[in-house]
Amino acid sequence: MSGVNDIRSTFLNYFASNGHEVVASSPLVPRNDPTLMFTNAGMVQFKNVFTGLETRPYKRATTAQKSVRAGGKHNDLDNVGYTARHLTFFEMLGNFSFGDYFKENAIELAWNLITKEFGLKKDNLLVTVYHTDEEAAEYWKKIAGFTDDRIIRIATSDNFWAMGDTGPCGPCSEIFIDRGEHIFGGPPGSADEDGDRFLEFWNLVFMQFDQPEPGVQVPLPRPSIDTGMGLERMASILQGVESVFETDLFRHLIDTTASAIGKAPDAATVASFRVIADHLRSSCFLIADGVLPSNEGRGYVLRRIMRRAMRHAQLLGVGDPLMHKLVPALVREMGQAYPELVRGQALIEETLKLEETRFRTTLARGLGLLSDATQSLDKGDRLDGETAFKLYDTYGFPLDLTQDALRQRGISVDTDGFNAAMAKQKADARASWVGSGEAATETVWFSVRDRVGPTEFLGYDTEVAEGVI
Ligand code: ATP
Ligand code: MG
Ligand code: MG
Ligand code: MG
User: Fold this and answer.
1) Could you point out which of 93, 366, 373, 466 has its C-alpha 20 to 30 Å from the C-alpha of 192?
2) Which atom of ligand 1 has the smallest separation from the CA of 234?
3) Residue nearest to atom 30 of ligand 1 (CA)
4) How many angstroms separate the CA atoms of 172 and 399, rounded?
5) How high does pLDDT run on average in the chain?
6) pLDDT higher than 50, residue 12
7) What is the mean pLDDT of residues 277-295?
8) Is 291's pLDDT higher than 60?
9) Alpha-helical runs (H) found in 289-414
10) Could you tell me the distance, in angstroms and rounded to a whole number, from the CA of residue 423 to the centre of ligand 2?
11) Ligand 4: distance of its center to the CA of 158 in Å?
12) Distance from the CA of 75 to the center of ligand 4, in angstroms?
């Protein structure tokens, strides 16, 4: 059986032996890119190489890239624990050609890796291509021997990648595996494509155009290749399991959680175990890359992830802070490939423990309030925005934590009402300051408050107050 660590090295070695430079993962906080919340794909560290702003001593590269898709444009936070394939933190394996090889070679390299090195059977595989990309369809026929029914033409942006409104762009081709009729889901492009039967595991992007201005496409003189394969998804395929959470690495994390709390997962609790294992990984890797929980920006996304995990720990009946106890297991699993986890271990444990200790009291109180407020609500009902805002403002519940807490009961949250309550509070606070005569202080105070968010109510038994200056 191929463990996650073996699959990663098989991928990198394969591309190294095909002339690719093995490049280290870049940090989760993108350097020089304030527009991007977190590194969410392998190509992020090569953006300037693709546009030609930067050159490297190599024309082919391969990486295992740490990626986070929570907050920002790609946000898979709400999927985690509920689909078999989404994680907030995952490793994207990639190969890149900077104006070197193109479509035919990229397809050939991919096909040989998955069928020869990984041993996948052709009969279970299918691909998508962008509807106008006949060239890609022809290569798939020639190289893989696919008939037309295995080449699904997609006309949506799912199969057309663009760096932004301008810059490089091009069609992509995604590789799927059919895991059998016993799993719910339809082929890509069908109404049931979100099911788990057909699993997308590799996306090949053919950067073949430049967009000097939105909507205008001119062929690039030297087109490039950018691909991304989800390591955990490939592991689930090679290990013959139905979800990424049943792969070796996640099994170990879930077992560690089970023994720490003295309770094994069952049908009712398995989602919580999964969310905890996933959120543990994203929290630890974010802290190792210098993100700390806070009330704004990246730090607030981290805080949201940590607090969601804590609510799931609470659901499992855990009384004491839990997350920091799971860190050694993660370091054991991933510390060798990512030494920053080993270096950061003490800080990671300390940060998790502190956040959990501080949030525990308000979490319990807020959940009490939430349960009272929703007692008379049923499936299909909506929680009013003011209560959701009170939970946010007084108890430190990020909006998505409240939404996640109500999800299983089929209750939604009035987000417009939530935003209105937030706007009203800001306006009221400003109004009450009018006439203080200290305009300078006022401006400073409000800009700080807007930046750090509201002060949290932490209970009468603690003196720690965050966001207070
Ligand atoms: P999906 O349609 O399943 O959400 P995607 O099309 O958004 O995936 P890409 O942006 O094409 O994903 O990323 C390249 C590869 O990275 C995917 O083919 C998949 O193997 C992996 N991947 C993407 N998102 C996730 C995630 N949230 N968790 C784990 N792996 C992921
Ligand atoms: Mg996606
Ligand atoms: Mg997709
Ligand atoms: Mg994709």
Assistant:
1) 93
2) 20
3) 230
4) 35
5) 91
6) yes
7) 97
8) yes
9) 297-315, 323-334, 339-373, 385-395, 399-407
10) 31
11) 7
12) 14
pLDDT digits (tens, 9 = 90+) for 35-67: 899 999 999 999 999 988 899 999 999 999 999
Residues with CB under 5 A from ligand 3 (ion): 200
Give residue 406 CA to ligand 3 midpoint distance, Å: 27
Give the per-residue pLDDT at 27. 97
In whole angstroms, what is the distance from residue 46 CA to residue 48 CA?
Answer: 6
Q: Which residue has the tokens 């991928």?
A: 11
pLDDT tens digits, one per residue of 385-439: 999 999 999 999 999 999 999 998 999 999 999 999 999 988 888 887 655 454 4
Q: 238 near 138, Cβ under 8 Å?
A: no
What backbone phi and psi angles, to 5 degrees, belong to 26?
-85, 165
Q: Residue 86's pLDDT band (boundaries 50, 70, 90)? A: very high
Identify which of 92, 225, 285 to mutate to test ligand 1's pocket (most ligand atoms within 8 A of the CB): 92
3-state secondary structure of 280: helix
Ligand nearest to the Cα of 70, by number: 1
Candidates 74, 79, 35; CA nearest to 275 is: 79
Statement: residue 442 has pLDDT above 50:
no
Residues in the chain: 469
Phi and psi dihedrals of 39, rounded to 5? -60, 120
Burial of 57 (0-12, 13-18, 19+ CB in 10 A): exposed
From the alpha carbon of 158, which atom of ligand 1 is closest?
Answer: 6
Token reading at 65: 């890239």
**313 CA distance to ligand 2 middle (Å):** 26
- C-alpha 78 to ligand 4 mean position (Å): 18
Exposed e or buried b per residue across 201-213, where buried means at least 16 C-beta atoms within 10 angstroms of its C-beta: bbbbbbbbbbbee
Q: Which residues contact 192 (CB under 8 A, 6 or more apart)?
A: 184, 185, 186
Kindly tell me if the per-residue pLDDT of 224 is higher than 80.
yes
Interface predicted TM-score of the whole assembly (ipTM), two decimals? 0.99
Which mutation among 113, 179, 203 tests ligand 1's pocket best, with the greatest number of atoms within 8 A of CB? Answer: 203
Pocket test of ligand 1: the residue of 78, 80, 86 to mutate, having most ligand atoms within 8 Å of its CB, is 86
241, with CB counted inside 10 A (0-12, 13-18, 19+), is middle
